[in-house]
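Notebook entry, structure prediction.
Reason for the run: the old model in the group folder had no record of what sequence produced it. Starting over properly, with the input documented here first.
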Amino acid sequence: MAQVTVKINGYAYTVGCEDGQERHLQAMAGQVEKRVDSIKALGGNSGEARLLVLAALLMADEIHDLRIETEAARHAPPPAAGAPPANPELQRTLGRLALRAEEIAAELERP
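New structure, fully documented this time:
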């Protein structure tokens, strides 16, 4: 298992991940940092734990919206004749991204 140190809001966190997933973990930490920065820009700087909780809630909301969109697309009627076909690969990718984001959020919540 690889160990990666990610930096979020100026703090370093060492997190374990599967070998070969180091860059992916760094990218996910970058996404968390992006949410933290957006919260701070709104004047929401009231403590590290609160910032991380708000960032997690923002990401959970985005995942929720993606799931609703994916589910709606899955149950949508077939496209009309001549319409471009739906992209099932895109739907699978979005589903995998949503699940991975939830896994990372769960890891960050563990003490």
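Summary: Residues 2-109 form one domain.
The old model has been moved to the deprecated folder.
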